[in-house]
Design a protein that fits this description.
Length: 97
């Protein structure tokens, strides 16, 4: 099963998550008995991030090809930077000074 959402700005459906069965060799390495079936599922943060930052190749977000400059420039990628409501409140306070 795959999870999609329609993006009005792009005019198309985007994959946000998927699910599937774990492969038997993966389960054996976890010490599970032969014949046990395990389903896995999850939502993706990578796809929406790709559209937000106009990244065309997912490898630019994960692994050794990550552009550390993009992470430094975008507070949404970093936990040590204010973003969202916190950033808005901070900018409003600065405007009042």
């Amino acid at each position: 099963m795959e999870i999609f959402s329609y993006h009005e700005g792009l005019g198309k459906w985007l994959e946000l998550g998927n699910s599937g069965m774990f492969r038997p060799e993966m389960l054996r390495s976890l010490g599970l008995e032969e014949g046990v079936q395990v389903a896995g599922f999850g939502l993706s943060l990578e796809r929406p991030t790709m559209f937000k930052y106009d990244v065309s190749n997912i490898r630019e977000l994960l692994g050794h090809e990550v552009d550390l400059g993009m992470i430094a420039r975008n507070p949404a990628c970093r936990l040590d930077k204010k973003m969202g409501r916190e950033a808005l409140q901070r900018s409003e306070a600065v405007d009042e000074i």
